[in-house]
Predict the structure.
Amino acid sequence: MSNPQLIMYDEEFKQINVVIEKLLREANAKVIFLVDKNGQLITGCGETERFDTTSLASLTAGNIAATGGLAKLIGEKEFSILFHEGEKDNLHISIVAGRVILVVLFDARSSLGLVRLRVKKASEELAVIFGRLVQKSEEKEKSGDSDFPFAEITDDDIDNLFS
Amino acid sequence: MSFINYASREINCKIVYYGPGLCGKTTNLQFVYQKTAPDAKGKMISLATETERTLFFDFLPLALGEIRGFKTRFHLYTVPGQVFYDASRKLILKGVDGVVFVADSQEERMDANIESVENLRINLAEQGYDLDKIPYVVQYNKRDLPNALSVDELRKELNPTNVPDFEACATTGEGVFETLKAIAKLILFDLKKGH
């Protein structure tokens, strides 16, 4: 399959949060989100409670997908950075490790140059962590050592979801 | 593909409603939105034209509850049905876990239904998916209309592989949750099988 399932483990989740929290401080940003290319929010930090994070994740992924489609039309692989400038707040959106989207929201207290610089460094660190994550889930799959929560799922479990 | 987060104990899956223009994909989502408790749903997003035709997609996040201590979330998407939005449809199918095909039961929409199913198969194949292997259900919508074909006729043309299928009237909500429940079930069992 073109895009294997993303599985997040505790250890890597903590490491990722450390990286984006550092990025939040160093880039003077308001909020940072990490989104799966399929539109699912992975994590976020900063003033996240002010935003509808689920919608934001889905629209970001739609945005990346649409610009990716545009890129292919003109013979590019993808556009790895998108920048949206607003009156007060701006969005810097970039692709990390080919499959995760890093969204940085910032205002006049920061600048595009600073954000770009810090994002570049953080992206390298995140790419290493996501690389490890993919490796880890592949190893777990190979060894059959799966602690998958739904292995024992029954019809009743699913029916209960809708009751 | 689904996203399993052991850190926050969440599992997220993506369902796409596919079908020809004006078959009722958005209406399906709207009904689910209306009938879901506020704490179980997020905001419904519709990227539509001024005449309320879907331009890019509709999006509705649903939190259904917990299974074995894991929060189970479904993200419902629709595609734009009109033929010329094919590039957008391809994008929305990325990372899909299950597909609902919404067919328009009206006799004059049969060709559009068939064209749309074929388009679905092709677009899925481009993403590396096989329609015969992924969780898939069919909904025969607009059963209340006088010019609706019989279910047997629709089934013969649109559901040759005998996947679960449902009669519906999305405007009144008949069949809407049955369809959703069926696809959710298939996805969760598929996940179980994959592990």
In short: Chain B touches chain A through 48 residues (CB under 8 Å).
